[in-house]
Amino acid sequence: MDNQRLILFIALSLVVLLLFSAWQREQQPPPPVELETIDGPAVAPPQNATVTPPPAEDVPPVVRENQAISAPSVTSQSAQTPLVMEGQRITVNTDRLQVMINTAGGEIIRVALLSYPVEQDKPDIPVQLLDDRMPGYFVAQSGLLASQGEAPNHHAMFTAEQTNYELADGENELKVRLHWSSEDGINVIKTYTFHRDSYEVDLDMEVKNNSQQAWKGRAYQQLQRTEMARESWLLYTYTGGVVSSSWDPYEKIDFSDMASWKAEQSYNKGGWIAMLQHYFLSAWIPAADSANHFYTKALSDGRYLLGQSGEERSVMPGSSERFSSLFYAGPKEQHRLEKIEPNLRLTVDYGVLDILAKPVFWVMEKIYSVVGNWGLAIIFVTLIIKLIFFPLSAASYKSMANMRRLSPKLKALKERYGDDRQKMSKAMMEIYKKEKINPLGGCLPILVQIPVFIALYWVLLESVEMRQAPFALWITDLSAKDPYYVLPLLMGASMWIQQKLNPPPLDPMQQKIMQALPIIFTAFFAFFPAGLVLYWVVNNCLSIAQQWYITRKVEAQAAAKA
């Protein structure tokens, strides 16, 4: 297997990988309608945002003492229930978030991310991460389940102290309190605490037992959403559920698996649950020392549920107990996530090459802190990687240059022996031995570099820092395709030039395929994010310069010996 066959194999493998990724999710729901921002008094959900499940369909089961936990099966009921129960809408505004809370259940039904506009030309319309309207339904729910006494789940009706909250200048936190009481004297205060320059929301549910008997119950938190459409038919990034537990720090749970998924163990210490999409996530994070159980369900109308319930606690008459957890709704900014819980950084999903991708991103981030431009950071990181692998690349290009020098002799052998492969292979090996050339000399250096370049690919694809990041001139968003296709054309041209520096294949079919590859890759890269194409262009240009220099040097040495 010569260098040309290796290059052909790698190129075709990449094409197959891209095609596989493009069709990895064959069935997708229609894209959600454009969402409104939370800029005034809330209105009731539209008439068409209704489904027919009973309220208990999405409530975890009440667990008695020493009773195994299992998610309830979906039941049917003729009575129609609104997807979001009618309640008072509470709006909360901080420097980072616009949030809407429904007093029916105390659910977080809408979250807009003020620092992340939907599009660059629509800076006043933020990304709506959570929304209670179909088809992009996505809400964060929490509540209490009592095994003795009464408790408010996420369908209970709370009362609020006011309907509008604003984080004032000079304040670092903002508290929103909701109240619920039962007839027998159980009072619950559900408090959301928002923080300045933060996407974290602290949840505290205080149970005050003013009854004559002990209260027993547990807290639960869950995320409920519909499956969203893919952003790109060509580039696939994971969208779905994730559970972090003591037995698996990062376990993906596809929407298709939520009807049947079961946790490996009954209880887990700490951990978290999350719903992921490209660049953003929402997660519930309980206390690190708390015991909890994970569960999933597939609900009606294409909704999916991922939740966790805590351990049971007792509240004696005249006493109180607090149930605390943390909710995160925001971007996949690694520094923020690591401070909350170390394993949350894994939601920036670099896949199996995380061990390589993390240092690559660290270097890129350090360069960005100096140059202030992510496009320049990509260029410098590509240059650094090329310098690190210079000795390996030099060996590969030297082998290719020698093979190029022998091309006339190999072509003559092809014409001499025709289809007699055995004689031709024997003659070729004699030439390689005489010229002291290893035909596989260029293979291993290329193979060693592939994992690093794939890791860089995932860094550019997954990092939210690339979203709407400008580079220069017409490239105003490194995460979007080049609007004028200049970079893909440059990439195709550089790939064609590289082919001219390589020894031509002896097989006519291989020659035709190799000649078509620049066109095929240009067509693919036309829809790639500009940041990825920029990396390939820079990498190809550096490779051309290095290969041209080494080829000239090898040819000069051969001429001197002759």
CATH architecture descriptor text of the largest domain: Distorted Sandwich
E-strand count? 22
Q: Radius of gyration, Cα only, in angstroms?
A: 30 Å
Cα distance spanning the termini: 29 Å
Inertia-based shape? elongated
How many strands, which pairing sense, and closed or not: the largest β-sheet? Answer: 9 strands, antiparallel
In CATH, the topology of the largest domain is named Beta-galactosidase, Chain A, domain 5
Unreliable stretches? 1-9, 18-55, 64-82
Name of the CATH first level of the largest domain:
Mainly Beta
Provide a compact summary of the structure.
With 562 residues, the protein is an alpha+beta fold. Helices cover 33% and strands 26% of the residues.
Model description:
The protein folds into two domains: 3-22 and 358-561, no CATH class; 94-229 and 238-349, Beta-galactosidase, Chain A, domain 5 (Distorted Sandwich), CATH 2.70.98.90. It is 33% helix and 26% strand. The chain is built from eleven helices and 22 strands. It has helices at residues 3-22, 334-340, 354-371, 374-388, 390-405, 407-417, 421-435, 443-462, 486-501, 508-525, 530-561, and strands at residues 50-51, 81-82, 89-93, 97-102, 107-119, 122-130, 138-148, 159-160, 164-166, 173-181, 186-195, 200-209, 215-226, 240-244, 251-253, 268-269, 272-277, 280-286, 291-298, 303-310, 313-315, 320-331. Strands 8-10-11-12-22-18-17-14-15 form a nine-stranded antiparallel sheet, with no helix packed on it. Strands 7, 13, 16, 19, 20 and 21 form a six-stranded antiparallel sheet that branches. Strands 6-5-4-3-9 form a five-stranded mixed sheet, with no helix packed on it. Strand 3 and strand 4 form a beta hairpin. Helix 4 (374-388) runs parallel beside helix 11 (530-561) and helix 9 runs antiparallel to helix 10.
